[in-house]
Design goal:
- By secondary structure, the protein is mainly alpha-helical.
- Helices cover 71% and strands 2% of the residues.
- The protein is built from 18 helices and two strands.
- A two-stranded antiparallel sheet has the order 1-2.
- Helix 1 runs parallel beside helix 18 and helix 12 crosses helix 18.
């Protein structure tokens, strides 16, 4: 699995370099373009899930334990956490976003029945894994509802309600902008609240935040360390990112609003990384100084995490239902909601039983990406080589999203 993952990573970065060299100045226009801020909000909130909120506080200590994990000795825990979540790996999303916006309309690789089936397996599996992550992290963040370790009935109910809300919101694409902007502002609000709680207290000062934030700079000095898997846990993260890459590219490509290709790359790598860096810096300060997050802070993180999950599941459910023609128009809203809620709830339980692994899903995604390249070289080379612009039928009309269900 490690060799397969490494092949996928190397291929991805070589492909990104070629895209920038060949089509760097092409204006990317999606089928439902939106303004740049809205696009960034959709990208950020669709491309991340509850793990961004819930994982760091449980991981910093592991990255600091060099006796158990000496491979982390090249940097500090904050830079490592940032490297697992930000900057370089967002380039995965760029490659697939560009492909679905500019190339796929000419190639139609993902319309081949077998490929469509595999792609939707990936989407559905990743969708369920997102709900599973929320379920497994609730005991740590809501110990008031249990013993802090065991998953109790209340947690299953919370996840069920979240799945139902996401499926309902997926019935209309107009909810995308509302959810994405709401998730973004809630996340920024959470950062401000927790930053103020740590750095405006009598014991702390604003300068300490600057000192903590500066630790992330070590990531850029060691960025090469994050390209290939450094251990099994990093490998898990990279497979996880690959499992998301195709579907997030497919989803976000709809909303690109006329940026040039190189600008899309910069936007996708830089803009999401800034709030991630600030958020992780705040959490790291809480962790190092053993500041308690129980009570209000944990509830606030749960609220934002749930919003992220609803936003992510909404986009993923919309993708696989559109791809498989399991739409509201075909089955009606009631059957659509019941069917998807049952499917997502069942698969979430399969992850809980360790019947499924996200690494398998990521490996399938790598196979599709490399298979797509092989298909282009064998069957569509001339058509792709001749591409000089986005599909002509895609026009920049920022009001178009209001007319789409």
């Amino acid at each position: 699995m490690t060799t397969w993952l490494s092949i996928g990573i190397i291929f991805t970065f070589v492909a990104i370099a070629f895209v920038i060299f060949r089509w760097g100045n092409v204006r990317c226009v999606g089928v439902t373009p939106v303004r740049t801020f809205t696009f960034i909000a959709i990208l950020f909130t669709s491309g991340l899930d509850v793990g961004l909120i819930m994982f760091p506080l449980t991981e910093f200590a592991g990255y600091a334990n060099l006796a158990a994990s000496p491979e982390y000795s090249f940097s500090n825990p904050l830079a490592i956490e940032f490297g697992f979540w930000a900057f370089l790996i967002w380039a995965f999303y760029f490659l697939t976003c560009f492909y679905f916006c500019v190339i796929e309309p000419r190639v139609k690789f993902f319309e081949i029945p077998l490929i469509k089936f595999i792609n939707n397996l990936i989407i559905i599996g990743t969708c369920a894994f997102t709900a599973y992550l929320l379920l497994t992290n609730l005991p740590w963040y809501l110990p008031e509802l249990g013993d802090g370790e065991t998953i109790v009935g209340s947690f299953y109910l919370i996840v069920f309600v979240v799945i139902a809300a996401a499926v309902y919101s997926s019935t209309s694409i107009r909810y995308v902008r509302i959810l994405s902007l709401a998730s973004t502002w809630l996340f920024l609000g959470l950062i401000v609240i927790m930053w103020a709680g740590a750095f405006l207290s009598e014991e702390s000062s604003v300068s300490e935040f600057t000192t903590t934030f500066a630790l992330i700079g070590d990531y850029f000095g060691n960025i090469h360390q994050f390209v290939l898997p450094m251990n099994d846990y990093h490998e898990f993260y990279l497979f996880w990112w690959f499992s998301w890459s195709i579907m997030i590219g497919q989803f976000t490509s709809r909303f690109v609003g006329g940026m040039k290709t190189y600008q899309v790359l910069i936007a996708m790598m830089v803009f999401p990384s800034i709030p991630i860096a600030v958020w992780f810096s705040v959490l790291y300060y809480y962790s190092v100084n053993e500041i308690a997050t129980t009570g209000f802070y944990n509830l606030a993180m749960i609220l934002v995490g749930i919003t992220f999950v609803i936003n992510s599941l909404d986009s993923l459910v919309r993708l696989y239902t559109d791809n498989l023609n399991l739409t509201v128009e075909r089955f009606g809203k009631a059957k659509y909601i019941i069917g998807n809620v049952v499917l997502m709830s069942g698969l979430t339980l399969l992850f809980k039983l360790d019947f499924l692994q996200i690494q398998w899903v990521g490996a399938l995604a790598i196979a599709l990406i490399i298979g797509c390249f092989g298909y282009i070289m064998a069957n569509k080379y001339k058509q792709v080589a001749a591409i000089e612009c986005s599909p002509e039928e895609n026009k920049i009309d920022f009001n178009k999203i209001e007319l789409v269900n």
